[in-house]
Write a structure and sequence with these properties.
- The chain has about 170 residues and is α+β, with helices and mostly antiparallel strands.
- The chain is about 55% helix and about 25% strand.
- The chain has three helices and seven strands.
- The chain has helices at about 5-45, 95-120, 150-174, and strands at about 50, 60-65, 70, 75-80, 80-90, 125-135, 140-145.
- Strands 1-2-3-4 form a four-stranded antiparallel sheet, with no helix packed on it. A three-stranded antiparallel sheet has the order 5-6-7, covered by helices on one side.
- Strand 6 (about 125-135) and strand 7 form a beta hairpin.
């Protein structure tokens, strides 16, 4: 092994070690920040009854059934302020894949079209946006966006239960 190859190997190994250590440090910082956020919320609102946890705090949802609070990211909302909820699906589609197949076919014939079709992604990228409408003139909408259908559906279900309980409570008071 020549000196240049050994030097290159040491540099590549050093870069890999730096990247791995940096990733672990970032993950550790995110976990610590998340734990601090959970501690703050439990001190303020009590026991967490439902949670959609993510290390990225704006993507986390906490439900405090005892104190009747919902926290979406950094926004806290009292249950009785929630009026409606909507789920929107934003499909990103694969129109680029169709274009690639057509261009591949024009340039390289059947083989080009087949190669482009083979490289196309099978799944359509979808984003799910849960929009929560609340009784507030200053900030009447809370939005939550995810690419996970099950999480969007879970949040939608939680909000619908809260809305139904609000309606039942109002009817029983009348």
């Amino acid at each position: 092994m020549t000196m240049e190859m050994l030097f290159a190997l040491v540099i590549v190994t050093s870069i890999i070690i730096i990247v791995v250590v940096r990733k672990k440090y970032k993950k550790h910082r995110a976990e610590k920040k998340f734990d601090e956020r959970v501690e703050y919320l439990t001190d303020r609102y009590g026991h967490i009854s439902q949670c959609i946890p993510y290390l990225s705090i704006p993507d986390s949802v906490f439900v405090f059934e005892e104190t009747q609070y919902l926290v979406v990211g950094y926004v806290a909302c009292k249950f009785d302020l929630i009026r409606d909820v909507r789920l929107d699906v934003i499909s990103q589609g694969n129109s680029g894949a169709i274009r690639d197949i057509v261009v591949g076919g024009m340039l390289l014939g059947t083989i080009g079209a087949l190669a482009a079709a083979n490289n196309a992604r099978d799944d359509d990228a979808c984003e799910y946006v849960v929009t929560i409408f609340i009784d507030s003139l200053s900030d009447p909408v809370i939005s939550y966006q995810t690419d996970d259908y099950n999480i969007a559906n879970r949040l939608l279900g939680i909000i619908r239960v809260i809305i139904d309980r609000n309606k039942s409570r109002l009817q029983s008071q009348q």
